[in-house]
Amino acid sequence: MKIFKKLNLTLGCLFLLLLIGCSNNTKDISSLPIEYISASQIIDRDNLNELIGDADNVFVARIDKIENTTYERDKYPFTNYSITVM
Question: Is the pTM of this model over 0.85?
Answer without folding.
Answer: no
